[in-house]
Structure formats: structure tokens, C-alpha cells
Amino acid sequence: MSFLEIKELKKVYFTRVGGNQVTALKNIDFTVEEGEYTAIMGESGSGKTTLLNTIALLDQPTEGKILLKGKDLASMKDKEIASFRRNHLGYVFQDFNLLDTFTLEDNIMLPLVLAGEEYQNMRNKMIPIAETLSIDHLLEKYPYEVSGGEKQRAAVARAMITNPDLILADEPTGALDSHSTDELLKYFSEINDKGQTLLMVTHSVKAASFAKRILFIQDGKIFHQLYKGERTQKEMYEEISHTLTMLTKGAK
Length: 252
Ligand code: ADP
Ligand code: MG
Prior knowledge:
Blueprint lengths: L3 E11 L6 E12 L4 E5 L6 H8 L7 E6 L2 E2 L5 H11 E4 L11 H11 L4 H14 L15 H13 L5 E5 L7 H16 L3 E6 L2 H4 L4 E6 L2 E7 L5 H19 L1
Parallel strand pairs: 3-8, 3-9, 6-7, 7-8
Antiparallel strand pairs: 1-2, 1-4, 4-5, 9-10
Helix pairs in contact: 3-4, 3-5, 5-6
The structure holds adenosine-5'-diphosphate and magnesium ion.
Adenosine-5'-diphosphate binds next to β2 and α1.
């Protein structure tokens, strides 16, 4: 049994206007082992967010199965979903999704507040994470008082605070400058070295080059994959660029 198993996943959206159908995911099949750091690459509109949102239980697949440690997520009951997501999954969004009327501290602790934890416990869990992410001096600030990179680090702290089985990240560097991008990717590599399983979707070659394995998605299907193996991040960057060029040529 794999850690995460995606089996014949399909997602069709029915638009309200005109009753049109959009097939966002045709047939997605892959597995992720515990401790892997996987990036999913694809053009805009290829189904990356849809895929991540179905795994995160933010959206329901039309067909197929998603198994996390053998548990079938797609058939989970509504009332189970919120607490399951809180206990097992951490989600990092491109646009941070922090609450503007909450301080960074309150944003980071929110998943634990919702789980009914005591304040001191929450502080004890938060402080080391905030320190590692170098935002411990910003905890009393509001999101609009800090930079994009700092907001994203707070969002990552919020995702990490429940000690999730799986971190899901949707274009996490998409709104960051290059320095903040480097910091975030360095942090992801560090937590992965300590055993954190990560699944990140991105169209950034740089972001993907930090992952240990890359799946390429096009038109709602996975059509290629690359393993980092012994390659350095720079070599991986070259390899991904090369692969993307070959794949686009092949598609024409
Ligand atoms: P990506 O994240 O790779 O850019 P998405 O998963 O957001 O791609 O979208 C995949 C396809 O599904 C696109 O054609 C998009 O327009 C469509 N789509 C996404 N969300 C919806 C929705 N809620 N309703 C209808 N179509 C959608
Ligand atoms: Mg997207």
C-alpha cells in the first residue's frame, strides 16, 4: 500500500451558464510514498489546482479514488471532512489565504483553535516553527503589515502546525519575489529532509527543480515523469527545461 494513491481520477465541471461541460481531469493515476517530495508541472489550465483541491477535499472528484494511508478520501462523509483535513493535511495557497483581521500568530494557530487545543499548547507548537521560518518577530503583526514572502512563511507555518501527514502546495512561489522563492524552497527541502511528505503543483521550473520527482500533467492526464536521482538542483533545472521543450515540440 502506498502512502497516497490516486486511481483513475476524473473531474468534470458543469458550468451553470449554457450547461457546458469542462473535463479538468481525464484520468489521473499515480502514487506517492511517505517522505517523497513530488512536484506536478503543467501549463495554466492543465488541471493542477483541480487535482490538488480534490486531494485536499476542497472539491469532489467525478470518478476515481484517492487513498491516503489506505483511507478512501473520496467517499468520506461531509461531517468527517473538516476534521480529517485539519488533522492530516496542510495546504499552502499561491495567494496565502491569511485572514486579514487576525495577527500572524492567530492565523498560524487557527487550525489548532478549531481543533480545540489549549493556548499554551498552541504556543509551544507554534514558536519553534515560527523561529525556523524566521517570522517569530512578526507574530503580533497583521498580514497587511508584512511582505509577501513573510505572509507565505506564515501560511506555511499554519500548514505545518498540525504536523500533517501531507503538505499540499498550489503554486506556492507564484506570488513571491526571487529571494522569498529561494527561502521557501529551501524550507520545503529542509522539512522534506526531516521526513515531511510534500506534493506541490507549479509551472515554475525553478520550484520544480527542488523536488525529488516531477510529474508532468497536460490536458488532465499525467504523461511523463522525471526522478531527480543523484542530480543537483541546477542539473535538475536544466533537465526540466529540456523535457518541457521536448514535450511541447512533441505535442505540435
Ligand atoms: P491549473 O491549476 O492547471 O491552471 P485548473 O485546475 O484551475 O488548472 O483548471 C483546469 C480546467 O478546469 C480549466 O479548463 C478550467 O477552466 C476548468 N475549471 C477549473 N475550475 C472550474 C470550475 N469551478 N468550473 C468550471 N470549470 C473549471
Ligand atoms: Mg492553478
